Amino acid sequence: MYKVIVTDPISENGLNALTSNQEFQVDQQTGLDPAVLVEVIKDYDALIVRSQTQVTREIIQAADRMKVIARAGVGVDNIDIEAATEKGIIVINAPAGNTIAATEHTMAMMLSLARNIPQAYGSLTSGKWERKLFKGVELYQKTLGVVGMGRIGTEVAKRAKGFQMNILGYDPFLTEDRAKKLGIIKASLDEIAEQADFITVHTPLTAETRGLINADYFAKTKKGVRIINCARGGIIEEQALVDAVNSGQVAGAAIDVFEHEPPENAGLTRNPRIIVTPHLGASTTEAQEKVAESVSEEIVGIFTSGSVQHAINLPHISASVQQKIRPYLTLSEQMAEFLMQVFKKAPNKININYYGELFLEDTGLLTRQMIKALLSYYLDSSINIVNVMQVLKAHSLSYSVQKNAAHKGFTNFIELEIVNGDDKATIACTYLTGFGGRIVSINGYRLDMEPEKYLLYIDHMDVPGMIGNVGSILGKGSINIGSMYVGRQTIGGKAVMVLTVDKPVPDGLRDELLSIEDLNDVQFVEIDIPNDEN
Ligand SMILES: NC(=O)C1=CN([C@@H]2O[C@H](COP(=O)(O)OP(=O)(O)OC[C@H]3O[C@@H](n4cnc5c(N)ncnc54)[C@H](O)[C@@H]3O)[C@@H](O)[C@H]2O)C=CC1
Ligand SMILES: O=C(O)CCC(=O)C(=O)O
């Protein structure tokens, strides 16, 4: 039974994938004091939050069972991603579920700002009739600058075109071609400052975007520009905005998100020219259902089949690539486990080569899987595919990945080499459709070996009687041989033998095997075989 805690208000319907699954227990405990959350979190395997809960390093460090932190929404700035990655916790979000809600809120804010609707409503409901005071401006033929042309920025631009606005888009990833297709103009931030009547920001809050719109920027904008922020507090410097509004440089602003939530700057929240909403961009029934559904389904997938779609701290791998590399996930890990046990030294360099059709695929997950298996042999067992690259870096270990379209005799071929000073060992595998995974080379010896739980690796000379001698010692020790794979360099030269055996080989028997003439080394190897492969 996996235990999931939900600490912010989230759509009940959207949680259905979890609540209707017998393998999951879902506890909704919203508004917990951080000190209480630090206590209770240690019992949970997954945490679901919106933007309220601050998932701090302290909370993450206490979360000893936690495998997934899910943000039912886009921005993950309330989660300490670095701490989660160090602890090997996958952080996921629901990037697309609230795009329309945030887009429509932006449009609502822009129209409200243009027509002073909140101020007029406040005036009328307090008994006044002040028509002159609330004369507005039209959107028609005005210029809108969209900073951040991702999901929401793009949808805002499309809708603003419906109002016949001229759109300038700024985004490091916006190409001329995409701008043209959208019917907008690709512009710089300064061009937006010079030309825009309305500016709306739709970037994430990052080190680069914090304070992107500041006093210097307002000095460059058109006098009377209107500003909208339904993205993240902090992208626009709050005090600089208040000053620019008070000086008349900025005619007004519409703000949904704040540097601190709830906001602390009264100059912003009680300013008659600044309209504010309490972070409502994603607050629609539909969006909340979609984001809750997205994270719930993904959590079920992570725990039941290991599939991850929207991880923040793992390389993104599309569903079609996942499908292609899936057969190699376990195989590459088993191959790495095998190699470590035969090599018996900690590697200081790891080289991975992908050949054949894998040349074209994103193999990041396979690389992580192999490195994880290698490092786990000597290091902490808490290493997983999320934190493995950090562990590698922390131990100053180097690695290289090369890809080659050459087939090496197989459609796909993965070769792993580990190096310690002058010593090195190599292993390679492939996946044969209809037959399954095969280890096809060890230290340069060709063989065709199916990974099994208990294996005996024997380094020997290719002399008559070797197989019989090994077989009779194992027979005397009641060790049954399942299958045997042999590979040799030349007739009578160096050779290796890998036996699959039914149970672990005791050390005493290993010593007896070592006494066989021309037998150089014996290593008992144990590989993790998932249940469904037995
Ligand atoms: N108010 C609310 O309730 C909601 C707020 N949001 C926020 O809206 C923002 C946008 O969300 P999405 O469009 O879904 O994200 P997205 O990831 O699809 O788009 C963000 C875009 O910003 C661009 N960008 C990054 N750095 C930039 C820079 N320095 N200058 C210009 N562009 C830059 C990126 O290239 C990307 O295209 C996020 O901050 C998100 O957290 C999202 C949903 C609801
Ligand atoms: O969950 C919410 O209401 C906030 C949504 C949001 O800000 C986001 O998804 O980035």
UniProtKB/TrEMBL annotation:
EC number(s) on file: 1.1.1.95
Keywords: Amino-acid biosynthesis, NAD, Oxidoreductase, Serine biosynthesis
Catalysed reactions listed for this entry: (2R)-3-phosphoglycerate + NAD(+) = 3-phosphooxypyruvate + NADH + H(+); (R)-2-hydroxyglutarate + NAD(+) = 2-oxoglutarate + NADH + H(+)
Stretches assigned to the ACT domain: 455-530
Pathway(s) the chain acts in: Amino-acid biosynthesis; L-serine biosynthesis; L-serine from 3-phospho-D-glycerate: step 1/3
Gene3D superfamilies in the record: 3.30.70.260, D-3-phosphoglycerate dehydrogenase, domain 3, NAD(P)-binding Rossmann-like Domain
Domain of life of the organism encoding this protein: Bacteria
InterPro entries: ACT-like_dom_sf, ACT_dom, ASB_dom_sf, D-isomer_2_OHA_DH_cat_dom, D-isomer_DH_CS, D-isomer_DH_CS1, D-isomer_DH_NAD-bd, NAD(P)-bd_dom_sf
One Gene Ontology molecular-function label: phosphoglycerate dehydrogenase activity
Keyword NAD on entry: yes
TM segment ranges: none
UniProt keyword NAD present: yes
Functional summary from the UniProt entry: Catalyzes the reversible oxidation of 3-phospho-D-glycerate to 3-phosphonooxypyruvate, the first step of the phosphorylated L-serine biosynthesis pathway. Also catalyzes the reversible oxidation of 2-hydroxyglutarate to 2-oxoglutarate.
Protein family (similarity comment): Belongs to the D-isomer specific 2-hydroxyacid dehydrogenase family.
Name of the molecule in the record: D-3-phosphoglycerate dehydrogenase
Organism: Sporolactobacillus shoreicorticis
